[in-house]
Automatic annotation (TrEMBL):
It comes from Streptomyces exfoliatus (Streptomyces hydrogenans). InterPro entries: NAD(P)-bd_dom_sf, NmrA-like, NmrA-like_oxidored. It comes from the Bacteria. This is NmrA family NAD(P)-binding protein. Belongs to the NmrA-type oxidoreductase family. Residues 8-242 form the NmrA-like domain. Keywords: NADP. SUPFAM superfamilies: NAD(P)-binding Rossmann-fold domains (SSF51735).
Amino acid sequence: MSSEIPMRVAVVGATGFQGGAVARLLAGRRHRVRTLTRRAAADRPPLPGAFFLAGDLGRRDDVRRLFEGTTHAFVTMPLVYESERVEVYARNVAAAAREAGTERLVLNANTRVPLGPTEVAAFETRRLAERVLRDSGVPLVVIRPPVYLDNLFSPWNGPSLVDEGVLAYPLPESTRTAWLSHRDLAEAALAALTLEGMEGRTFDIGGARSLTGGELAAAFGRGLGRAVRYEELDPAAFERGLARLLGPETAAGVAGIYHYMASGADPLLMADDDGVSTEVLALEPAPVEEWVARQPWQIWSTDADEPDPTSRR
């Protein structure tokens, strides 16, 4: 179908950064967006054009209400890494989609997933969600992103980057990574929702080029107009810092990906997809330096007023 034909889309995860980017793009293209949230109205992010339903992904009736009257769905699972809970969420989504007659459901796995089994909860819970949805018979497209540039516009990256020219991240410098923005994810999601012949396919989205840490720092330097060097951040230190923001269980789940990458078990897991998503989904991420140049990095300067990390979201 054409992306210009209006859809009614159930967006799971629209109050997060990734689902929010998809919801904004869909609403901006005049599609009807519905989402489920446990947040009070005052705590919800601004999503013009989206309709909020109070509810919980763990309650089947709430998810069924979300899908009522919708034609399509986009799903990003929350940052939960307990297999039992993720399976309940996936089964609730599958049941609601079948009942609503969903024409196509796009699952954002939130990460690449290795070919073989691992002991990393961040990978295996997403593999579980994919399997539940695929086995349900719902017309499914899976997109697996690498790493988001937006992760680097954060209170744990911004100050050292702006003040010291240091880009620190918990990936080995030699790891070739196809960095994407949340906007790139949204464009890929829209294509996966609307293009013909997508059902049943899985895309390791990422464009046609990947960068080492040094190459990423050089691109940041061009965008900022200053010298930038890459510094490998210890995944354990990253996890400790993340735990202060998200709690120890969620931090351990997220950091599991970086511990795995640091092990060298699959050094090309986050690399480019040889141009497949560019060819099939018409995904053409902007050069990193262009993304960098568009961000208001000055909010992280120690010379600026107290930064508000939500101001750009």
